[in-house]
Amino acid sequence: MLQVARIIGGQTLRGTIQAAGSKNSSLPILAASLLTSGKVTLHGVPDLSDVRFMAEILRHQGAEVSNPKPGTWIICAQEITHRTPYDLVRKMRASICLLGALVGRLRHAEMAIPGGCVIGPRPIDLHLRGLEALGCEVKLEGGVIFVDATNAQGTTINMAGPMGSTVTGTANMVMAATTTPGITRIETAACEPEVGDLCTMLSKMGAKIRGHGTATIEVEGVAALHGCEHSVITDRIEVGTYLVAGAITNGDVTVAGANPAHLTAFLNKLQEAGVHVETGPDFIRAYGLPQHRVEIITEPYPGFPTDLQAQFMALQLLVPDRSVLTEKVYPHRFMHAAELQRMGADILVEGATATVQGGRPLSGAPVMASDLRASAALILAALAAKGETWVQRLYHLDRGYERFEERLTQLGAQIERLPADAMPKDIRED
Ligand code: EPZ
């Protein structure tokens, strides 16, 4: 049964919550566990549908996967297949991270090409170009990628694309290079902390990597990797979402376990908007309403993260001025704008730029989630809106936020998760 969230706006959120583990660190790290026949134990993995789905894919590949307690996963990939079928890949774009792991472990991979999604086309040309530069034979037939890395040799490759680097593309190249003979120098590598976390885990497995989390990563191939134990970093995007929840309700929210160094561009914009921010080595506090307009351009790390664009748009609906948000990563990532307009927002989307004329009263309405971060943005706006909001297709939210409504309730929000048929008939999607 589909589920919906029912929110009554107007509550002020106050208190402290603990950051969960990073989805975008956990997914490539789970894939990387296929690089060894040894035991890999992971801690601090968030309880998300995408994580559970990645575990299913690993089991399909032949790995033994267990989840003995919340946050802990144990993977033993002794005998695995190099084939990953379309019906698994098409459900989750991040499954593309298996490509580098299968090439690194088996020197062969056969994987269906993942589809796009609502935030835009999700090409993999940079992934394939990188593998070819490494000396892999790459073929595309019938929607399947065939990679043969028998003759791969360490070399210098550049991951730059029209929108900068590629996060999962870099993850794939690092994983493939761990057992490729010679030294592979990856230039214009993605610098996201999640790539750094993957490199840290691979190093624990015996990989020889330098430049964790920088734009140039050097990998010296080794014969094989061994098992390890690793705790994933916390989720900077989830942290940013909760900080906005505090600010948008004129509240005071602290996220413990947050690393402010992972969110500098976002925190700068939060302060520029007039929200008060306090940080420590492992916490971030945000309090007070936004007062000023901002101009935001999303870019690869360390620029403003595209995954926090929708949430910041919701925040700027409160500022009686004109804020401008430009997407340099996913130019069409504005599906949330139309739904926010249903709540009274004045947003003009022109190409890759959205102009928000804030300060108009927001009123609750039935709205439709379209993707992971958009669904969070709709809930944030609902917290500040007058009256009742129903957010439908909550499965989008569950892909990237662990127990979101429970944790917002801990902070004082009036939000509940209900079966879709709890919605009044006249506003329910059929
Ligand atoms: C990762 O996706 C994240 N997902 C995304 O988070 C995030 O939005 C994105 O990076 C950008 O930060 C995971 O890490 C699992 P990219 P990824 O390859 O790796 C273009 C979320 O909400 N491109 O860095 O797929 C691409 O079109 C999700 O948690 C090519 O042109 O993103 C985009 O414009 C959504 N060719 C830009 O690069 C390629 O071969 C960045 O894409 C690959 C990408």
Strand-helix topology:
Blueprint: E1 3-8, E2 14-18, H1 23-32, E3 39-43, H2 49-61, E4 64-69, E5 72-76, E6 83-84, H3 86-89, H4 98-106, E7 108-112, H5 125-133, E8 137-141, E9 144-148, E10 156-158, H6 167-177, E11 183-187, H7 193-204, E12 208-210, E13 217-220, E14 228-231, H8 236-248, E15 252-256, H9 264-272, E16 276-280, E17 283-287, E18 295-298, H10 309-316, E19 322-327, H11 335-341, E20 347-350, E21 353-357, E22 366-368, H12 372-384, E23 388-392, H13 395-398, H14 404-410, E24 414-419
Parallel strand pairs: 2-15, 3-14, 6-7, 10-11, 18-19, 22-23
Antiparallel strand pairs: 1-23, 1-24, 3-5, 4-5, 7-9, 8-9, 11-13, 12-13, 15-17, 16-17, 19-21, 20-21
The structure holds ligand EPZ.
